[in-house]
């Protein structure tokens, strides 16, 4: 029983880890407060994932929506999207930052944001009835193609983060923010564009009065639109048209992009409740040094302390790794009950680890003993799991061997996942560009083990699984 309670702690700790691939939004930052998003490669396998404002989506492969689905519901907020159960409050005129996992440099294209008024709470909205209006949208930077800079490149250069301003003239109410990157590296051929929509529920406050009409999500793009079916490998790209219609009055094409400093963590507000100041918990530099977090993976040894800033109560989680075995052991140093705890995160295995975080916990004391989970390396000849497929965890009986380009990474005691492994020197990562017309001679043309360089068109070749 105590072990199940502790699993929620592990799930929270694991949310600091990011999976590098095509990508998804991991967190949303408003006025320095960071809110966790739905994590599609983790939350489906986690007991009791946290309530968030981000929509639940079937994006376990970090994949995309293709143009042949642009007239179907999946384009609205991604595959099998279901509205989040919470919302984030933001004032009209405020800036919202959306933090992505690592975005590939080869996936050039536009970045756009839309709003849709739910005309009431958004948690049970019919997504097919939402009407979206565009509040920003940027495509090719400095056309014609002088620097090969696209909005997606700007996002990468900004630490894989994008900032959008909520127009100051928008009327107060409950809205869905739809954020999308369209990758155009294969868009010179039919059905080659890749759309990565992400949706977040907002409650907008302020004194604005505008309520733009908008269009249905299934009518935002067309498969043959000039900004969808488009060859980005030509010499002069002065004719690119950003998809999704015109930006409303009060919106801008693109804000000057810079990282917003995170000073606190917050939790989404559930629908049916009013917003209180206590829903945002400030994290400060005074968090005790003994309260430290290291993200658990199968490739590192780590120690995790979960402590109360006003007492000496701690729960210690230790992992040890050998070439064949990963062990997670949980112990407790005392049994003092606490209602709030502080976390500080430090790790050398994640580029996107938060500097600090805080969460409210149950007043039920944690037990003094925990179980130990051991994952053993698979024997030779065992079936291989797919990338991002499950490869371990308590009571798991499926394949534990990952492809050559991946490693089995522990997310929590119940779930381990095949994630991309280290890239050898001189090789290109999985799904990275490995050739094409004008591909620099000094750039990699070989791929990580288990992948091959596949030509998508004369201008673009990509490392794909064998």
TrEMBL record:
- CDD domains for the chain: LPMO_AA9
Question: Which SMART domains does the record cross-reference, listed alphabetically?
Answer: fCBD (SM00236)
Q: One Pfam family name from the record?
A: CBM_1
Q: Which GO terms describe its cellular component?
A: extracellular region
UniProt cross-references to SUPFAM superfamilies, sorted A to Z: Cellulose-binding domain
Q: Which UniProt keywords apply?
A: Carbohydrate metabolism, Cellulose degradation, Copper, Disulfide bond, Hydrolase, Metal-binding, Monooxygenase, Oxidoreductase, Polysaccharide degradation, Secreted, Signal
Principal location class: secreted
User: Where does it live in the cell?
Assistant: Secreted
InterPro entries assigned to the protein according to its UniProt record, in alphabetical order: AA9, AA9_LPMO, CBD, CBD_sf
Is the keyword Hydrolase in the record?
yes
Q: Give the EC number(s) under which this enzyme is classified.
A: 1.14.99.56
Domain (CBM1): residue spans on this chain: 383-419, 426-464
Q: Name the PROSITE patterns on file.
A: CBM1_1 (PS00562), CBM1_2 (PS51164)
Reaction catalysed? [(1->4)-beta-D-glucosyl]n+m + reduced acceptor + O2 = 4-dehydro-beta-D-glucosyl-[(1->4)-beta-D-glucosyl]n-1 + [(1->4)-beta-D-glucosyl]m + acceptor + H2O
Q: Does the keyword GTP-binding apply?
A: no
One Gene Ontology BP term is:
cellulose catabolic process
**The organism's place on the tree of life at top rank:** Eukaryota
What cofactor does this one take? Cu(2+)
Question: Spans of biased composition, class Low complexity?
Answer: 330-379
Per the record, which residues fall in region Disordered? 330-381
Signal peptide span: 1-21
| Protein family | Belongs to the polysaccharide monooxygenase AA9 family.
State what protein this is by name.
lytic cellulose monooxygenase (C4-dehydrogenating)
Organism, by scientific name, is Glomerella acutata
């Amino acid at each position: 029983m105590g072990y199940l309670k502790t699993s929620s702690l592990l799930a929270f700790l694991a949310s600091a880890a990011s999976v590098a691939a095509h990508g998804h939004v991991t967190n949303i930052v408003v006025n320095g407060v960071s809110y966790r998003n739905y994590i599609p490669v983790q939350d489906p396998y986690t007991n009791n994932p946290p309530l968030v404002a981000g929509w639940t989506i079937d994006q376990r492969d970090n994949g995309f929506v293709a143009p042949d689905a642009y007239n179907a519901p999946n384009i609205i907020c991604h595959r099998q999207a279901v509205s989040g159960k919470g919302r984030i409050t933001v004032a009209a005129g405020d800036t919202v930052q959306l933090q992505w996992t690592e975005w590939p440099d080869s996936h050039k294209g536009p970045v756009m944001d839309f709003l849709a008024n739910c005309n009431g709470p958004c948690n049970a909205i019919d997504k097919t009835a939402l009407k979206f209006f565009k509040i920003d949208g940027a495509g090719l930077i400095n056309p014609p193609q002088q620097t090969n800079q696209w909005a997606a490149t700007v996002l990468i250069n900004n630490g894989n983060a994008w900032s959008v301003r909520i127009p100051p003239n928008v009327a107060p109410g409950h809205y869905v923010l739809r954020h999308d990157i369209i990758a155009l590296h294969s868009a010179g051929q039919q059905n080659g564009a890749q759309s990565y929509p992400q949706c977040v529920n907002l409650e907008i406050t302020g004194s604005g009065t505008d309520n733009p009409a908008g269009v249905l999500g299934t009518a935002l793009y067309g498969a043959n639109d000039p900004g969808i079916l488009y060859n980005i490998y030509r010499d002069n790209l002065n004719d690119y048209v950003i998809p999704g219609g015109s930006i409303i009055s009060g919106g801008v094409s693109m804000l000057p992009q810079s990282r917003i400093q995170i000073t606190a963590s917050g939790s989404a507000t559930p629908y049916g409740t009013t917003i209180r100041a206590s829903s945002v918990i400030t994290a400060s530099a005074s968090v005790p040094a003994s309260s430290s977090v290291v993200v658990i993976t199968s490739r590192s040894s780590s120690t995790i302390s979960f402590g109360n800033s006003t007492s000496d109560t701690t729960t210690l989680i230790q992992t040890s790794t050998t070439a064949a075995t990963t062990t997670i052991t949980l112990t407790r140093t005392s049994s003092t009950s606490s209602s709030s705890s502080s976390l500080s995160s430090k790790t050398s295995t994640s580029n996107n680890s938060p500097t600090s975080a805080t969460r409210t916990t149950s007043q039920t004391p944690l037990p003094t003993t925990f179980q130990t989970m051991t994952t053993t390396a698979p024997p030779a000849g065992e079936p291989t799991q797919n990338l991002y497929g499950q490869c371990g965890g308590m009571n798991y009986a499926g394949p534990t061997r990952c492809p050559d380009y991946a490693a089995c990474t522990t997310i929590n005691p119940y779930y381990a996942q095949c994630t991309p492994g280290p890239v050898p020197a001189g090789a290109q990562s999985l799904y990275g560009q490995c050739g094409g017309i004008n591909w620099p001679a000094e750039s990699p043309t070989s791929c990580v083990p288990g992948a091959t360089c596949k030509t998508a068109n004369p201008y673009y070749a990509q490392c794909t699984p064998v």
